[in-house]
Amino acid sequence: MIAVLRLLALTLFAIVMFVFGCGYCLLSPRNPKHVHTIALYFAKMARILGIKLELRVADAAREVGPSVHIGNHQNNYDLFTISGAVLPRTVTVGKKSLLWMPLFGQLYWLTGNILIDRANRSKAMGTIGQVVAKIKERKVSVWMFPEGTRSRGRGLLPFKTGAFHAAIGAGVPVVPIVCSSTDKVKFNRWNNGVVIVEVMPPVSTAGMTKEDVRELSEHCRNLMAAKLDDLNAEAQARSAK
Predict the structure, then answer these.
(1) Which fold would CATH assign to domain 1-240?
(2) What pLDDT is stored for residue 119 in this prediction?
(3) Measuring CA to CA, which residue among 116, 112, 115, 106 is closest to residue 89?
(4) What pLDDT sits at residue 1?
(5) How far apart are CA 149 and CA 170, in angstroms?
(6) In this structure, are residues 54 and 92 in contact, taking their beta carbons and an 8 Å threshold?
(7) Residues 47-75, mean pLDDT to the nearest whole number
(8) Mean pLDDT along residues 215-236
(9) Among 75, 135, 152, 201, which is disulfide-ready with 60 (CB 3.0 to 4.6 Å)?
(10) Is 103 exposed, middle or buried (0-12, 13-18, 19+ CB in 10 A)?
């Protein structure tokens, strides 16, 4: 019964967001301010899923300006959890196939996000150049998932290097963002406990070149892996109370 009610609520939410969200975005199509606004509405739906969502943002991350944001990518619940950490003037980078996802895909495009073709390596690398150009020209931050795919309970997967090429190419910091594990969230369970999302302090890329990409990637992954362990332990303890 809980699953049916949630499915109805999410369906209604998707329809409302598509109609009113797309209408709102059409007033200034692909304006980067829309991503933050729409993402906050998605994060509010965490309560409907029985999740008590807690967001923490480092002061330095709020003040850093244009940057590359990297988050851990777990499952479809990311839409309602880590989405709450999308800061103002931040656009995301996703698969081109998202465009064909009913309702969500069209809204995703209208809000100004970047779509890339990951099946074509040359196009994907060309998009990194476009990401760099957008950061410089539009003074925006970009959000990327360096794992490249959903981890689905396997912990933090190895990182691909695109996000770090973009950060070094644009000469901007990397902002790591970590969401505690959601692999135990059950659609048919009333209380799914605490989920913590933390926006960490920026990692500087000053003086780095493309030769430093691997080192930067490993450093950021190590920071995020340690933070994920800490958040998981805290979220589990608080959810058990």
Answers:
(1) Glycerol-3-phosphate (1)-acyltransferase (3.40.1130)
(2) 58
(3) 112
(4) 86
(5) 24
(6) no
(7) 96
(8) 97
(9) 201
(10) middle
Strands of the sheet containing 52-57, edge to edge, are: 52-57, 194-199, 174-179, 68-71, 141-144, 90-95, 114-116
| pLDDT level of residue 118 (50, 70, 90 thresholds) | low
Q: Is 152 exposed, middle or buried (0-12, 13-18, 19+ CB in 10 A)?
A: exposed
Q: Which residues of 163-192 are buried (b: 16+ CB within 10 A; e: fewer)?
A: bbbbbbbbebbbbbbbbbbbeebeeeeeeb
| Domain parsing of the chain, residue ranges | 1-240
- b/e per residue, 104-141, with b = 16+ CB within 10 A? bbbbbbbbbbbbbebeeeeebeebbeebbebbeeeebb
For residue range 70-81, what is the model confidence (pLDDT) as tens digits?
999 999 999 999
Segment (H or E) for 55? strand 52-57
Q: What are phi and psi of 114, to 5 degrees?
A: -105, 130
pTM greater than 0.85 (yes/no): yes
